[in-house]
Amino acid sequence: NLVIGTAGKGIDFSAQTASSATGATTGDEVLDHYEEGTWTPVFSGDIAFSTQSNFTYTKIGRVVHIQGYLTGGSGTFGTSWAITGLPFSGNVNYNLLPLWSHGVDLAFMGYVAASEAQMNIRDRDGATMSLSEIGVQCTYITS
Predict the structure, then answer these.
(1) In 3D, which of 129, 30, 117 has the Cα closest to residue 70?
(2) Which pLDDT tens digit goes with each residue over 11-52?
(3) How confident is the model at residue 20, as a pLDDT?
(4) CA–CA gap between residue 24 and residue 30 (Å, rounded)
(5) How many CB atoms lie within 10 A of CB 40?
C-alpha cells in the first residue's frame, strides 16, 4: 500500500476494493495488477524452430503484451498453424496481432481467440509458409 497524506487521509493506492485513488467500489475498478515474465512457445504439428529468443510478457490488468523471435524454422507451414503456451488466454475472438517474416510479409494474419492460450496463424490469400525466421508481437485482452 502507498498512502499519501496524514492520519489515514489522502490517496490510498492499495489493491483493496473501495480504496483506490478513484474511490472504486468493485474489484474490476481498483488499481490494475502488474505482472511480467517469460514464456515458452510450443508449436502445432511438426513445426519447430531451432532458436527461440526473448519470449516475454507484460500484463497490466487484463491487457497482455507478448513478444518473441524465432529462427531456424522447419516443418510443414501450411495455411493454418498455431503457437501455443501463451501465458494467458484471450477473452474474445480475433484479438489480432501483427506477424512478419522475411520474404512473405503481409501474407498471413494471426489472432488470439477466446478461451485459448494460443496464437492461431492463417494464410490470407492461399499462401503457404517457408520460414527461416519470424518475429511475434501481440497485445491482447485476457479475462
Answers:
(1) 129
(2) 555 555 444 455 555 555 445 688 999 999 998 878 888 999
(3) 46
(4) 6
(5) 10
pTM: 0.69
Q: What is the Cα 65 distance to its own chain's centre? A: 4
Kindly provide the b/e burial profile for residues 14-30, where b requires at least 16 CB atoms within 10 angstroms of the residue's own CB.
Answer: eeeeebbeeeeeeeeeb
Nearest Cα to Cα of residue 63 among 109, 112, 22: 112
d(CA 11, CA 31) in angstroms, rounded, equals 12
Task: Give strand pairing partners of 95.
Answer: 112
| Phi, psi (deg, nearest 5) at residue 58 | -135, 130
Contact 53, 68 (CB under 8 A): yes
CA angle, residues 106, 109, 113, in degrees to nearest 5: 165
